[in-house]
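Reminder to self: tokens first, then the designed residues, so the page reads top to bottom the way the pipeline ran.
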């Protein structure tokens, strides 16, 4: 299937159907064989679509998705599993959420699939891991954690290696000698060699080429070495025909390195065509200004040929063939320059005239804008092509959220109206994108009070950008409409209030009259009721509705959550919390996060057992730190412990963090805190010492 068709199929299918398909692939994985580049691209496209399809990942779904780890792009890895309630991160929350047990599962999956992964993928996973505040400082990493990330250790930044203690290195040595990672120590040695490189000075100019090559390939060491080698070149200390010079010219591994060296050489000597040929890969570091200076030079054709032969360079012969074959079915013959031809043109795009630029397919160009930014495009060309306006077909062929709010604003009303349903289903749209869409659509939809139920459903997440008065005026009383709105997560407290008050006013209902069906239908919108109104809800009806609310991350305030749990502890509902068993805590799900401080501080082990990981993650950070003791935290299951978020962790004291750490690695430690006095244990060096 074409890649766009794969994306469209996955995004348009029902989520349950996609889950079953992923599960079927997981069970039939041994029968799948990815052999051709086309099949590889299909798997990569499918993997990206799956990740985009499920902004929330359960442990069960992650197990099925883990088979796709070798096909994840670096951008997929950096956004999945996202920083969320379940995976602690110092970075802002992404759009992807992941259930609490997924982080240990992720480490296991990475270890299992490490042999199939490429270095960039492992480096990306390392970056994702180091964003997590729960891993703490390197000297505090216990042996069982180091063991779990063993395949990733060679890709840790050198600054982290410097922090390893002698005890940690000794523990690693024992694991590595007994395992299949003996070569790891050579990587560690190279990483630590950074300090030595800095002290070598001009002696680096005379290094053995074989040693030089290994250092240049190591990202942790190469930065300092490149700077020193540029000085060698600029000072003429490298023999023009020597092996070191050949190694330098062929080992350039990034455009930044090439640009850095080219600037240094340009300062040292005039660049001729012969010089450019001699520079090898470093010639790829020439600036746009330098490139344009050669346009009228007699050697410009030779320069184009040289550029085309560089890594990822354009191939002029192919360009000429494609541009001059109007009778052979090329896209140019059809009056447009499509994605295939854009890829062939590559860096030669700036040399198209304005009439040819007008033929560029805007949708194909939008998918390549990041690459275009690195080309030497004149400002007038940027003005002509930088903001392509998508059509409805473009929107359907891509993810709506892939287009900027400015591009969406420029779409015609007719094109937008034809794509409303597709746009409304994309939950990855930002607030700014949704706002741009609503401002544009409002002009063609007419008064909001006249919107039909099917139109409201089609608008989907775009509805969250309606104004407060518009939400009150719109007829949102249809159960199907209200249930759909209750699943959306982009609401502000004021807009949730506008929806619930508008619905109750139109139905002439008081809070006390809301049935269990009404409350279940509200979903997230139940947070549109203020605490005083929540305290007037029927306890029995709320206890029935909680079966539908318990899996939601309700965007309620702390006061609203406490009001909800106070109603559930009424005799007409579940009775006093002191009499609740684990089954009641399981039944109320995330609402357990709203239990009052005095109740949480008195929880028993069997009651803690029933609290869902999602409820743990929703507890206000300061509340968790003040109310739950280290002993209570030690009663958490691994799944519950991994649900502790970054802000929560930051509020915990040393004993509480110790307890959570023990709970996370249950079975991998020598001593657990359960049932032991808070003062009876000490955490020493890299092991646990128990007190008899």
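Designed residues (692 positions):
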């Amino acid at each position: 299937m074409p890649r766009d068709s794969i994306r469209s199929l996955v995004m348009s299918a029902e989520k349950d159907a996609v889950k079953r398909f992923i599960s079927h692939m997981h069970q039939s994985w041994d029968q799948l064989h990815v052999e051709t580049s086309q099949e590889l691209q299909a798997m990569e496209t499918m993997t990206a679509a799956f990740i985009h399809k499920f902004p929330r990942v359960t442990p069960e779904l992650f197990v099925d998705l883990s088979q796709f780890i070798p096909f994840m792009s670096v951008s997929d890895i950096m956004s999945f599993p996202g920083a969320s309630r379940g995976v602690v991160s110092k970075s802002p929350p992404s759009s992807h959420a992941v259930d609490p047990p997924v982080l240990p599962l992720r480490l296991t999956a990475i270890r299992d699939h490490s042999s199939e992964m490429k270095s960039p993928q492992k480096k990306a996973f390392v970056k994702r891991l180091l964003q997590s505040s729960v891993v703490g400082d390197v000297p505090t990493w216990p042996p069982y954690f180091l063991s779990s990330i063993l395949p990733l250790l060679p890709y840790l930044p050198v600054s982290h290696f410097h922090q390893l203690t002698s005890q940690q290195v000794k523990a690693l040595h024992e694991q590595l000698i007994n395992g299949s990672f003996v070569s790891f120590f050579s990587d560690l040695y190279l990483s630590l060699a950074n300090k030595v490189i800095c002290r070598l000075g001009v002696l680096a100019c005379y290094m053995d080429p074989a040693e030089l090559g290994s250092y240049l390939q190591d990202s942790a060491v190469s930065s300092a070495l490149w700077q020193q080698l540029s000085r060698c070149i600029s000072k003429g200390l490298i023999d023009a025909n020597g092996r070191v010079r050949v190694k330098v010219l062929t080992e350039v591994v990034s455009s930044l390195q090439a640009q850095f060296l080219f600037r240094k050489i340009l300062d040292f000597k005039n660049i001729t065509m012969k010089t450019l040929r001699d520079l090898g890969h470093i010639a790829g570091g020439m600036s746009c200004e330098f490139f344009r200076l050669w346009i009228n030079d007699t050697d410009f054709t030779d320069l184009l040929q040289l550029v085309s032969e560089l890594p990822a360079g354009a191939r002029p012969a192919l360009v000429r063939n494609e541009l001059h074959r109007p009778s052979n079915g090329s896209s140019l013959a059809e009056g447009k320059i499509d994605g295939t031809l854009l890829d062939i043109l590559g860096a030669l795009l700036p040399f198209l005239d304005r009439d040819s630029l007008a033929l560029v397919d805007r949708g194909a160009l939008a998918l390549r804008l990041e690459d275009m930014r690195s080309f030497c495009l004149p400002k007038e060309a940027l003005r002509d092509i930088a903001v392509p306006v998508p059509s409805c077909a473009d929107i359907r062929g891509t993810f709506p959220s892939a287009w900027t709010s400015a591009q969406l604003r420029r779409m015609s009303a007719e094109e937008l109206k034809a794509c409303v349903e597709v746009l409304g289903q994309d939950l990855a749209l930002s607030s700014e994108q949704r706002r741009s869409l609503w401002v544009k659509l409002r002009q063609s939809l007419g008064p909001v009070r006249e919107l039909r139920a099917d139109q409201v459903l089609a608008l989907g997440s775009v509805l969250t950008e309606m104004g407060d008065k518009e939400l009150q005026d719109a007829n949102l009383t249809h159960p199907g409409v209200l249930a759909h709105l209750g699943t959306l997560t982009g609401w502000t407290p004021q807009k949730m209030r506008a929806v619930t008050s508008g619905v109750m006013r139109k139905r002439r209902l008081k809070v006390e009259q809301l049935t269990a069906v009404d409350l279940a239908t509200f979903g997230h919108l139940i947070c549109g009721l203020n605490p005083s109104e929540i305290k007037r809800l029927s306890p029995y009806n709320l206890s029935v509705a909680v079966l539908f609310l318990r899996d939601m991350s309700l965007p309620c305030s702390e006061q609203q959550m406490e009001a909800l749990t106070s109603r559930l502890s009424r005799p007409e509902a579940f009775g006093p919390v002191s009499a609740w068993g684990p089954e009641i805590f399981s039944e109320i799900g995330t609402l357990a996060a709203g239990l009052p401080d005095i109740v949480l501080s008195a929880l028993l082990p069997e009651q803690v057992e029933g609290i869902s990981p999602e409820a743990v993650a929703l507890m206000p950070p300061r509340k968790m730190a003040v109310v739950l003791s280290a002993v209570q935290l030690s009663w958490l299951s691994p799944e519950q412990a991994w649900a502790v978020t970054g802000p929560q962790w930051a509020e915990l004291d040393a004993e509480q963090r110790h307890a959570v750490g023990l709970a996370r690695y249950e079975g991998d430690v020598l001593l657990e805190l359960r049932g032991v006095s808070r003062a009876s244990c000490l955490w020493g060096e890299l092991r646990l010492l128990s007190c008899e």
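The CA atoms of residues 153 and 344 lie 39 Å apart.
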